[in-house]
Amino acid sequence: MLVELGIQSVEILGDSMLVLKQIAGEYKCLNPSLAVYLVTARNLLTEFGEATWEYIPREENFAANELAQVASGIQMPGDCVQRIIKIGRKNLPSVLTRGMEIEVNSALITKDDWREPIMTYLQYPTLPSEKRVRIMATNYLMWNEDLVRKSKDEVLLRCLGKTEYMKVMGETHEGICGAHQGGRKMCWLIRRYGYFWPTMMKDCINYSKGCEACQRHGPIQQAPSVPMNPVVKPWPFRGWAMDLIGKIYPASSQQHCFIIVATDYFTKWVEAKPIKTTTSQEIITFIEEQIIQRFGIPESITTDRGSSFISKDMLDMAETFKFKLLQSTPYYAQANGQAESSNKVVINIIRKMLEKNPK
């Protein structure tokens, strides 16, 4: 009505401090059904040149109180009515049933955000809250308007909502630095990057299971019918299995078409390096830089009987550094099973990463 009369300055008196604070933008509206009316009220206020609001006690707001009582249909006793109020009825359905197109800011409705109850309690600890929320809040704090979790190692982890953590999982799993890890590895990496949400492990496992590239290129599980009896070399970085992958076609942008892979028998640590040729000198350089200089001189290195591995230069190097150069049985790849297993893992990672970007 005031808008139709062309009023430019209006003063609003209210007996609800909560509603006035929500209109002023100091408090958030946590009720989705009331958020629509809050947005409608804010849109109406933009029609006035000047709008102010003031809190008055309920007992002093008799005019609005009596109008509300009459509109509700409650019969007021005669001695409770302080003055005669002329009423003109104009029936309209509610904003929701009228189908008004109102865009409600996501900041006003936070029903599905697991962080909101904790943030509300930390910001306004005097407001009523559930006991469960109060207990959970002991592990969290506010930092630059963000909710962070205190981890056991005293590292602060930024808490993410659903939209954010879906993006983080995508970048971790298949982003520019992602290697299509499994769910548990993804969860560990995300925590290491400094992020947290309550269902991390479950969401990461489901995400990795739903990856099309992982399903297409993943190995078929063939569990043995009898328990395995592995032979463990109880000395870290003293026994290595080495093999070559390739020739890979097409070659990379730097013309690398082979990969040399070495795996430690004890820790299963893998060292891999792309190379252009399979000469003995390339392999000797790899052993010196990737194994000896980083982990010390090994006791033994097991390879197949490729010409690059049994050349005179390789035998001379083994004699110089005093380690054993062992060769597996010819035409029997299982004899160097550790190297073949590592090759399979590396090949699967490369297939997943290069499927969309071959270079």
UniProtKB/TrEMBL annotation:
Residues 232-359 form the Integrase catalytic domain. It comes from the Eukaryota. GO terms for molecular function: nucleic acid binding; RNA-DNA hybrid ribonuclease activity. PROSITE patterns: INTEGRASE. SUPFAM superfamilies: Ribonuclease H-like. GO terms for biological process: DNA integration. Pfam families: Integrase_H2C2 (PF17921), rve (PF00665), RVT_3 (PF13456). This is Integrase catalytic domain-containing protein. It comes from Prunus dulcis (Almond).
